[in-house]
Amino acid sequence: MAKENKVSKNMAHAQKYDLIPFEDYLAGERDVEIRSEYVDGLVYAMAGASETHNTIAGSFFAQIEINLKDGCRVWQSDMKVVIRNKGQKFSYYPDTMAACGENTDDLYVRTNPILIVEVLSDSTERTDLKEKFDNYISIPTLLEYVVVSQDVPLVRLWRRRTSWEREMYRADDTFRLESVELDVPVQHIYRRVRKEVGLDVSR
C-alpha cells in the first residue's frame, strides 16, 4: 500500500487503473482510446493536455522535425518509451521523443531515444522533474532531457555529457540541442502562445 500511495502522489493528474502484468499492458495499449502509462506495476490513464500545452509541444516538435537528419525520427505524444531501471519497468508517452537507428521488434515502442522533451504543468511537475527524470536518465542512449514550462518562457535542459547538470534558458536565450544538432531560440517555442506565457503583456 505504501508504494501505491507514493506513486499516486507523483501522478496526481492521472486516474489509477487496475494492476496488470507489463506484457499485458504493452499488448493492450495497441488498441485503446485512452492512453495509459506504466509505473512499476501500476497503470495510470493519461489526463488531457491544455491548448497551451499542446501548442508549445507542437511548435517544439515541428522545429525538431524539419531539421532532423536522415536516419533519425521524432514523435509527438503517441510513441511509448519503455524503461527498465533497477529491476522495475516503466512506460511513458513523452511529449516529444527523437531516436536514431533501428527500432526493436515492437513498432509501438522505443527503447533507444536520444532526446526526450516534456512540457511541464502544475499537475505533472513532480513527476517530470523527479520520477520521469530518474527513469529517463537511466536510458543508455539518452543524450538530453528537456523540460519546458507552459506558464512562463523557461526551458530546463540536462545532458549526459555534463553528468546531468541542469541548464536553464529564458525568453531571450538560445540553447543548443546537441543530440539533434539544433539551435533553438526560446521565444520560437512560445511564438504562438506569447500572451499566455507573458511575452506580450501589453495585449
Plain-language structure description:
The protein is globular and about 50 Å long. The strands form three sheets. It has a six-stranded mixed β-sheet with strand order 1-3-2-6-5-8, with helices on one face. It has five helices and 14 strands. A hairpin with a 2-residue loop joins β5 (80-85) and β6 (88-92). It has a domain at 49-82 and 92-189: Alpha-Beta Complex (tt1808, chain A), CATH 3.90.1570.10. The protein is an alpha+beta fold and 203 residues long.
Could you say what the CATH architecture of the domain at 49-82 and 92-189 is? Answer: Alpha-Beta Complex
Residue stretches low in confidence (pLDDT < 50, at least 5 long) are 1-14
Q: Major sheet, described briefly? A: 6 strands, mixed
CATH class annotation of the domain at 49-82 and 92-189: Alpha Beta
Principal-axis shape? globular
Main-sheet strand order equals 1-3-2-6-5-8
The residue fraction in helices comes out at 10-25%
Number of helices: 5
CATH topology of the domain at 49-82 and 92-189: tt1808, chain A
Rounded to the nearest angstrom, the distance between the terminal CA atoms is 50 Å
Rg: 17 Å
Q: Assess the beta-strand content as a share of residues.
A: 25-35%
**Element string (H = helix, E = strand):** HEHEEHEEEEEEHEEEEEH
The CATH superfamily label of the domain at 49-82 and 92-189 reads: tt1808, chain A
Strand-pairing-aware structural class: alpha+beta
Protein name: Putative restriction endonuclease domain-containing protein
Pfam families: Uma2
Domain Putative restriction endonuclease: 22-179
